[in-house]
Amino acid sequence: MILVIPVDGSESSKNAINKTMAKGLFEKAEIHLITVNPVTGDIPASPYMALNMMDQIIEINKKKALDILEEASGIIASKYPVAAAVVKEGDPAQEIIKYSSDLGADLIVMGNRGLGTFNKLLLGSVSQQVITHSKCSVLIVKEG
Q1: In a 3-state reduction of DSSP, which class is residue 40?
Q2: How far apart, in Å, are the Cα atoms of 142 and each of 15, 18, 20, 91, 115?
Q3: Given this model, what pLDDT does residue 61 score?
């Protein structure tokens, strides 16, 4: 079974890892971690920004993404091997869906931050978009 776990460093994503690991879901699975950096070099610089500010933001986000993957890998690797840990850039839901589809994933396991109804109507949550558009099954692990 190919298992994709999107992580963002939140308590919700750590909770998803810990709960599914405790239930034995990672047993005999090929585990892939993904984190998505939503800020890319494609964003036009504002005339109010220092010239190198966008470059600095991108570099900080890349480092943060690597730190998130390292932490998640550390939690899982204590019991199970991690096949891959990747950083993508762009829209989180789209990148998770594309990565999972390209892998031929059997299951995506992710946390739910619990956005309120109003925020879902305005923005749509990443988990909701993944559930709606993914070609494979999606397990949403709620906190509590």
Answers
A1: coil
A2: 8, 12, 11, 22, 12
A3: 87
pLDDT digits (tens, 9 = 90+) for 95-136: 999 999 999 999 999 988 754 444 444 445 888 899 999 999
Give 44-73 pLDDT, tens digit per residue. Answer: 666 666 667 777 888 888 899 999 999 999
Q: What pTM, to 2 d.p., does this model score?
A: 0.84
Q: What is the CATH number of the domain that holds 93?
A: 3.40.50.620
Residue 77 lies in domain = 2-141
* DSSP-assigned letter for residue 44: P
Q: Are 81 and 31 in contact (CB under 8 A)?
A: yes
Cα separation, 46 vs 86, in Å, equals: 29
Closest Cα to residue 95, out of 87, 84, 83? 87
- CB 29 within 8 Å of CB 1: yes
User: Domain tally for the chain?
Assistant: 1
